[in-house]
Structure formats: C-alpha cells, structure tokens
# Entry
Amino acid sequence: MVKNHQHGAIGVIKHGFGGADQEHGMRIKQTDGVYRTPILKNRIPEPEPATSAGPPQTETSALTPAHVDERLLCRLAVDIGGTFTDAVLEDGDDIVKRHAVKVLTTPQDPAKGFVQAAMKALGTAGRKPEQVRLILHGTTLATNAILERKGARTAIITTAGFKDILDVASGGRCDSHDLRSSRTSPLVPRHLRFEVRQRLRADGSEEVPLDACGLAGLAPRIRAAGIESLAVCFLNSHMNDSHEERAVAILRPLLPDVRICTSHGVSPEIREYERFSTAAANAYIQPLISKYLKEAESLLQQQGFRCPLLLMTSGGGLVDSDTAAALPIRLVESGPAGGVTLAQHVAREVDVSELLSLDMGGTTAKVCAISNGHAAVARQFEVDRAERFIKGSGLPVRIPCLDLVEISGGGGSIASIDAVGSLQVGPHSAGSEPGPACYSRGGVKATVTDSDLVLGRVESGAFAAGEVNLVSDNASDALRRDVQEPLGLASSCLAAQAVAEAVEESLATAARAHAAEHGLDLSRHALVAFGGAAPLRAAHLAERLGLRKVFIPPDASVGSAIGFLSAPLAFEALKSRPMRLTEGSFDCTEINAVYRQLWHQTISVVALGSARWKPGRPAKERRRAYGRYVGQGWEIGIELPNRDFVQDDLEMIQNRFEDAYKKVFSRTVPGAAVEIRSWALGVVADSDPLTWARERFEHSRKKARTSYALDENKQPNMPQVHHRRKVFCASSNSLVEVPVYQRDDLPGGARILGPAIIQEAYTTTVVTHSFDCVVLENGFLQLEARRGQSVLEQSPSPLHLHVNQQEDISGTNLHHDAQLKPSASSLQLAWSSLLAAVEEQAELMLRAAFSPLAREAGAVSFAIFDVSGRLIAQNSKSTPSLCGLMRSFVCSLQRGKHVANIKEGDTLLGNGLWCSAGRSSDLVALTPILSPTEGFPALLGFIVTATHTSSLDLTQDGQSVTWPAFLSRSGEVCQELLSCLTGSVEQHGDCAGDAMTLLTGNELGVRRILALLSRHHVDFTSLADYACMASKKAILQKSKQMLGPGDWQHQTVVRIAGSDEQEHAVTLTAQLKTCSEGAICLNLDAIPATPGELINNIAGSTHASSVAFAHFALFCVLGQGIPVNGGMLSTLTIEVAQGSLLDTKPTCHSHDSSTLAYLIPDVIFGCLGTKLHNIVPAASSSMLFRLDISTRTNIGNGASGLTTMSCHVEGGGLGGIAGQDGLSATVFPSSLQSTPLEVTEAVCPVIFRRKELVADSGGPGRNRGGLGLRVTLEPAGAETVSVRFTQSLSSGPNGAFGGLPGKQAEACASADGRIQRFDFQQLSMGQPVTFETSGGGGFGPPTKRDRAAVLADIQDGFV
# Structure
C-alpha cells in the first residue's frame, strides 16, 4: 500500500513533479505541437513474482505490464452509501464475471465496513486478497461529514476586513416568500476566522504586502483554539497565489500538526464566497478523510491486499489516495459520479454516442446527458442544503464535477397534496425506516413504491431479493387516503397511476431542462437506467421523451460500484487568465504557457495514481475554455484542440464559442466582444494496469452491434415465461395480464415482446407495450421501440379523461369512445411542467444577462399572460418592482392597442418610464404566443420578461425613441434599436446585451410553452383557467383559516432624506379588511407627517411598485406554496390613495421608483401582527441598498459625462421572528442577492477595504434582528470615481412585541460629510467611502432571550 504523504501530494498537485520551478523540474518534450511528459516510473511496489527464477529485468521507463503475474485476476469496486456498502468483484480478463454483495454501512467505523464488504465479495467469488490487482473506491463519507457536521475543528485566515464573507454568503434568500427562510450555517464559525493584513487587486497586483509578522503571531492563537485544519483564503487569490503560498510557507513550520489548504489551490476562480466556501469545506473534511484512508489502507494490508487503492471523484475520474487526502472535497458526490461513468461505459459498449443516464434509488433520482462520449460537466454544486431540492439553500462547492440533475422521486418519496390541491411527490421521503406503507414497518404515508406495488410493477415476495415482504392492502389504503380521495379519483389504481405519472413527468421535465442548458437535442439520445428503481420507469420515461432505445446493464442495482470499474484515472486543473478574443488582446504565447503549467499539474496527479501505463497508450488530454460575452457574468464551456495555439486560432476559438452559445440560447449577441475567463485541462489515463476496456469488450461489442438487432420480420427467440401477473397498462387503460421473466434465466439473444416484466434480485425492468426487449450477448437488456411506431404517439392516460367518464378499472376497461378532455390530473401535470419551465427560463436568462443588477443580483423576471392580460405564471424569484413593471406594460400595451396586429416572431420592447411603473433603465419585452395552426394562428397569450439595466438616455437618429419599439419583427432583430441601445451608455453593451437576453428568453419561452401544450394534450385557455382557479381557491381558503373576517390598521412614521438635503418625516398607513369568503381589501397611504409640507422633495413610489410590494407582503403571509397568478391576485384588492407618496410619477431622472414601496411589507406585517404574531417578523432593513459606481468619460466636443461602470448591491438585517433570529446582510423585500466584491473590482476602478457585519446593529429581542453590513471602498487608480448611495431611510427598523429597533443605515465620505440620496459623491484616490446598512428589528422582550444564544452571540462578536 502507498503511505500517505500529504505535503508531497499537495506540492505535486500545485506544481507537478518539477516543483514550482517548472523549467528545472521534469523534462518536457514537444511532439506534434503538444508538450508531453515522459512515462514516469511506477512508485507503487510490484507484487512479488511467483518464483525468483530467471535473470533480473532491465529497468526502463517503459514499464513491464503487470499482467505477467497471473495471480492478479481480480478488480474490486466498493461504494459506501448511507445505508449499504456495495462491493463488486470483477473476476477474469477475457470472460468476465461479476460478484456483487451488499453489507450494512458502519458509520462509526467506515474503514471496517469497507474491508468487510471487500472480504465478502472475495468470499463469494472464492478469491484471495493477493489476487486483487486494483481496488476502486467511492464513498459518501466526505458528504456525510458535512451534512452531519462531524468534520475537524477548522479555522480560516483571510484578508483583514473580510472575515464575514461566509456569513454574508450570497446575501439572498432561497425562497423569496418564506419569512422563515434560513441559510446553512458556515462550517467555520466566526470566532475561528482570523484576519491578516494583505491585499491583492483585481488584476493580481499587490496593493498591501502580506504582514508576515502578524501572520506568524496568529499561530499561538490557532494552537490554543485546538485547530486541526486551516484554510487560507485571500481576496483575488485566483489571479495571484503568491500571498496564499507564502502564508502556508510561514505557518507550516509553526503549525506542524495542522493541515493547511489554500483557496486558490482548491478552487482558483473568481467570486470570493464560492471560493472561500469550497476551501473551508475542503479543510473541514481533510483530517477525517486522511485518517480514514490511512486506516482503510492499513486494514487492507492486514488482510493481505497488496494492490493500489484509487478513489472516485465528483468529476468522474479516479485519483490515488494521496491526492484524495489533499483534495477531499473532490470526493463529494463520488458515488453518483460512478453511475455516470457506468453510463459512459455503456455508451461505448453499445456504440451509442448520445445517451441519457437515469440513476434512481430510494430517495432521489439523478439524470445526466452524455454527448460524443463525454458526460455533461459543471463547475459548481451545493451541499448541505437547508431545503434539499431548493437551489441556493446550501453551501456552494466550486470544483470540476459531472452535472447531475437531482430531483425528488425515489422509491421512498412521499406522495401528498400541496397547497393548491395538486399531487406532488417528495421532497420528503419515508426512507428505509419506517419506509413505505407496504413495508409494514410503521410507515403510513403513500410513496412511489406503494404505487408501483398497486400498479403491479413490483411483486410481493420478489422485492429486494425477497428480503422485504410487501403488503398490497397497506399500499392501497395509503393511496386511497392520501391521493385517491383528495383528488376524487375512481380507484386506488388510478391514484397509483397518478403518482407514477407525476414522478415520470418530473424526470422528463428535469431531463429536458438539463438538455436545454447544455444545448443538446434529446431526440438523438438513448436512455440507460441503473439503480434499484430506475429500470421500473425507464420505458415510461423514454415514451415521454420520445427516446427509441433503453439499455439496462447487468447488476443495475449496484450501478455506481460497477461504474468505478470502468472509470479512468483523471484529473482536471483550471487557471483564471481573462483574455479578450480581439486583435491586440489575444496572446497565443500566454495561452500555451498556461496549458504547459496545467499539464504539469494534471499529469503529475494522474501519474501518482498510475500503477501501470501500457506502452503506446499515452494519457489523453481534454482542453476546455470557459468564455462569455464581455459584460456577462457566467461562462460557457468550449472544447479546444489538443495542440499549441497560434495567433490565427483567434477566429477558431471565437467561432467555437458562438456555436456553443447558439446551441444553448438559439442566438448570438451581435457586435459583442468575447472574452475567455479561464482555461482548463483534463488528463485521462487507464486506471487498470492489466486490461483495457476497449480490448476486453471488443468482441462482445461487435456482437452487441450486429448479432441481436431487433428484426420484427424474424421469428422471436422467446424465452420461457416464469409466471404471469396483472399490471396496470396505461396504453390500454386497463389491468392486463403480462408475462414475468427472471433475468438470470434469459440467454443472450432472447427476445421479449412488450408489455412484460423482467425481474432480478434487486430491481425490476418494465417493458411497456411500445417496446420490445432483446438480451445482448454482454448481458445488457436493450429495449427498442417497434419499427414504424412513434414512441410519442401513445393513447392518452386514463387520467386525461374527465373523472365523470371514468369507470372503476379493478377488472374492466375504460370506455375508449369517451370524449377525451383535459382532466384535473392531466392539467395538474401540465401546470407543474409549466411552472418548472418558467423557473428554468428565468435561470437561463440570468446566465445570459449583462447588467450587474441582473447577472449578479438576479433582477430578472419571466412571466406568462393570457390575451386578457391575466397573469398565468411567473418565476418565483421575480422582484416586486419587476412584477409591477410587467403587469403595467401588458396593460399599457392593451390600452394603446399595440398588440392588436402583433405577429409571430415580433417582440415589443419598452421601459418603466413609458408605462409609469419604473425607471427608464428598466427594460421589459413582450412576445406573443400564437397557436401553431396554419392560416391565421390564434393569439393565446404573451411571454413577458423584464430586468434592471444600466442608466439609459436613448435617442435614435437624434430623436427620442418612441416606446414601445419593436426589438424584433418576424424573428429578425431590429438593428437600429439595438444600435441605439448600444450607443446609449458606455457599459460594455449592457443595455443592448440585456435587450437580447430578454428577446432570447421570450423566443425560447414561446417554443417551450407550445411544446408543453402539445405534449400534455391540453389547450392554453383550459390550463390558464385551471391554474388561476386553483390558486384563487387556495388563497381564499388560507385567508379564511388564518385571518377570518376582520379589520386591522397600522401606522408608522419614518424619516427619509430628501432631495433638498433635509430629513422629512413620512406617515405610512395600511388598513386591511377581510370578508367571510377570504377576499382581502387593502388601503395604503403615505403623506408627510408635517401638515402642509410639499411632497416634491420626498422620493415616493409609483402606483405599480406600491401595489406590487403590497402583493409581495401578502404572499409572504398567506401565499406560501401557492403559485402566483391572476387567480391569486383577483382575491386581493389594493387601493392606493391618489396623490399620495405611493402614487408618484417617475421622471427621466428618477433613480428608484420604489423608494417608499420597500417599506410597505413592514407596514402590512404590522397590520397583521396582532392576529398572526407568531408568523410575521419585526421590521427589516427593507430599503434596497444600491451603490452606483461611475467614472467620468469624454463623450466628445470637449464634454464629459458619467459612465455607469457597475451597480453594487448589499443587504441589511431582517427582523427577528418568533423562534428565529433575523438573517444578517440579506436583501429584502425581494429575492435579490448581493454583488461579489471580486466581480465589482474586476469591472470598476475601485478597491474594497472591508465588508463586515456591524456588531450590535441588530435590534435586541427574544429573537435578535439580523445584523447590518459595513462596507468601505475607495478608487483604485487615478481616475475619479463617483458613487451614489440609494438607501435614504434615516431611521432604524422597528422592533415588535417588545423587541427594540435595529441600527439605522449610515453613509459617509469623511468624518463630517454624508452622501445624499440624489447626488453623486466624487471620490479621488485615497478618499474612502463607508456605508452601513440597517440592522433588523428585534422580536419579543430582550430579557427573554435564551442564555445560550446570548453566549453564542458574544463568542462570535455579534453583540
């Protein structure tokens, strides 16, 4: 076994075997334009030969293959899961046999369970440890350590002034309407984060030298704190690692027993929170994983194993144990990655280049697309989510990984009825204990397994190799109670079918979104299914997606472990080096130098794990670049050739980027410059020293391709039926008797006509009537659609019929001549798909956005309206101001009859000023949804999108633009308007780019909606009516339950800084009434507190914004879990007093149209506080903090103008709520996020000096208010910088029920100066500006606060 040498492994990962001085390290030779490293001598001890006879071999760099020792017959793969540990022994070379076993995982001593599984697999095959030549291992240990918080006592050393980066996180909330939305706590508490003076600029240059003495002085404090692991995280270290490396060099001798990692060594990419979070997670699990690997290696040695141990990573490759110990964060999600590796192997086996993998177990299902042999990759995922399936609720981990889309839908997922009466499956799971109702272990809730049993897809006595006896009566009872009766279905069979269809539609929706994100066409893909539950629904999923082939590999229930056996040695490294693809900026010499450095790093790691490389089979490279249009925030990966680059490659890289961009977004952005942000290199080599998959399976692969192709003209070789049972068949709408086969009895070449069931020990394959099945020579089951039959052309499900026309199907067929109309069940599925599509389109737009407010803060909204202007759906993170803008835009267009003659391919663009709903820089676009009928297609509705962009002063040919304007006509972009948008502001084309983003979102949205309607066989009007009625019914019911009839009023006085540099008192009033039916009427008013005072000097809000923020507040209280649409809005009547400060008109110079509207939610919460005191919070830092950063630019004719460079957003403290402290530094009331410091510095000539939580800023209370934020910045160069501070509230948020108010916001440029609301503050180099956001109000008497919470606040310095 290899002894773990952590420090050496880290050095190899960073610098290669040549060390930091690459030129004087390992010799590099250039062949065919590619730099190659010579084959390295094996550092793993050779197995002792059987005899010592024969002359000694001459040592050469071309190593002798290990297979000269005939004792090395086996490979062993072990996958440690949460409940079971799977082990698969692969025995033999030419004829391979696999022996799969399962043992219970031993969480207290995982190494013991690992060795037990290995020995059990050997015993099953009759082999000995010394006969194993390679052990391949994947484990959930790293993931579980984070989830269960069982990692090491970890500290962080970071740049002075920035230790709160982990607490601030993204500054947003994962669920914008959840007043109790929480964040996952950082792995490193605040009191274990230490600061040191140093600072790098955005380009990597040194601003402040590293304080070596101060750093060394931290060592005694770190030792005294009992720190086991340490992460060094400095700002902008992704551009220059010298400070972090020097810090490690200083600290390592002083802390010899502490493991140290650096943020650039773990995740060398821009965005400080993601990089720091990844480094902290790596440090947190490093001691645990290192100890585990040492123990496992020791136990294996004691048992007689003498072979290498390789670990599976989240990127789908294997690394040696030294590398795994140095970078354990890459072991997270290694098990699911093994499944994708299996799918890649299947693609090679069956000669299919496009494949979709489905891995489905007891709790979740995962899909991943494979194209041209490569699995879809990503660069970030989340762990330890506060809400498991909600994006943004967990800790970000930014490393190379396979892009696995996870959804709820495993066998144990619980079926229930949601707030609007729709069936949902998950996210909660019954687990193994108590398990599904049919387990008879105390579980009573209906699950997916219960539905499979009632449908006949699984059989009692044959489930889980007979280890679990299923009771069908329990399943039927649970389904009747939880699904059938609430939905009004005729039988438990239909209830089970509804659950099955909900799961399958969720899978199909996830797969379509995944394919769209990567620009793939699913119709060209086949499906491979593995995991215990995947073969059950693989054929049904293929039918929904229109896929014609499905493959079920042998031993599919242990697919991840089998995938390890086909995984290669692989490692990817990345380097940030921004470079524009323009003449004068593109530098091929520098690119080649980057890839030379990356080659050293990657080949060295791969060589560490290489027991043998077969001569003539060198390691393979995969070069990728991550690029974007200048001004965007997210990159797209592009493949690059494996050779040195020349200057003429500029055009090639540009073309590849635009091809990749067009595949995802359907359009490119004309005239926009392209930049590459980072360069990546992956190196792949054979992991097995003896055999190679290509050679081993060549013969069987040929047979799989030719010998057993389905031929309907040939008499089928039908195997013997084991028995028959009744299965509900959706295609025939009846219970039918189908043959059941045992997979172990099926010979190669056996053919089975669907419908049929194929059983094996730990899974069951369902062959639907659309497919036939053939058993390939290599043991694969191949399901293929019958020739001449479209998989998608299926008879409607019985759930698509009206319930009144259904009959009990316990023994009779449904009436096939019944009129097919959309039923509630089919409309529910279509609605779920519609809501998912809306969310996915909004996410896609964020990736394409240009304005910092859109791409970083998330100010993008996507909505669907019908022809009457009724809202049908909108993305859940739509900001209130953009929601008001979209509704006002649709109404204004209809009043002006602008949509009367709108045609297919037309898109209208407007702004907030035109429809009196916002600023001139708020862009909104509308595209019609037209029925796909020939002749005169009917107008169904509209796709509307909106975003905040840079300041606009638009003219076209010297004249003001007439709004609304056509952004596209008949699908062609209006170049005149686009040129006008581009020339309106020197902001890297933000305005034009964002207009194109809206256009792209609208066009793709129209296509998705029309495809959805066709797929679900529903019409737009029926779907819209159903959705609105369901939401309306749900909100009325909730209002009656929570409020009942009543009348509440609340008034508050706030002080606001006006344009006259004076503070003005404003009285805000809300009066809320409810009727017995649950409808709500709300009256709002805002007037100067001083009678007779003019309102001209006070910034108010538009009517649209005021109404939108009022809606937002009511949704937070009453609408949790209810989709927002016109039905919901129709129950809420919002009246704004005419002429009040909540009914102002925006002007060209208005900076914010929602100044007072931000405070409306707190006033409404005050109204409802007496009735719902445990539900509503104290007041929050509700005024949006936005810092506009500009520079002065020459605009011609000797004049100069202000150029907006960026818009920086930060949050304040939220009010405490019963049982929970308010979140700190969070943007409210909206779903916006804060802007990464490194992103702002990269585009603006500023440098931040600190970003820290303000102690004692949260209002004291039984539940403390969240803390405000203090930020200091100054110009980074000689250029004069102007800033504008938007938070004008001069009083702190109020406490509630005895809680005290939070600290008010502050902003100052000097000791005696304040930045005013409407004025720019010009700053010169060396002149800092500091601002503080408000803390949230406290909830309840401070004297009632829990003592432990007080002590924790004191320890972390919050008070």
